[in-house]
Design brief:
The protein is mainly alpha-helical. Helices cover about 60% and strands about 0% of the residues. It has three helices and no strands. The radius of gyration is 16 Å and the shape is elongated.
């Protein structure tokens, strides 16, 4: 399965959250709803998921800097 490059994901996630805030303040007939659905679909395609919540979870774990490579700070001495 093809997956989006991690550099693309921050823009998709930011767009989704910005539209979600605008949609919460808008009515059901708002053009923001269509844009939000498009953003949800783009996130799902980019992460290879079928649900926007799973897409956000997957994107969060694939974002640059999401995983710490050096866990020596957590090691007990």
């Amino acid at each position: 399965m093809l997956m989006a490059h991690p550099a693309v994901l921050p823009g998709l996630v930011d767009r989704y959250w910005a539209l979600a805030v605008l949609d919460a303040a808008a009515d059901d007939e708002s053009p923001v709803r269509k844009e939000l659905e498009d953003a949800e679909r783009a996130l799902c395609v980019a992460t290879g998921t079928a649900d926007v919540h799973a897409a956000l979870f997957s994107a969060r774990h694939r974002l640059p800097g999401a995983r710490v490579l050096d866990d020596s700070v957590l090691a007990s001495t």
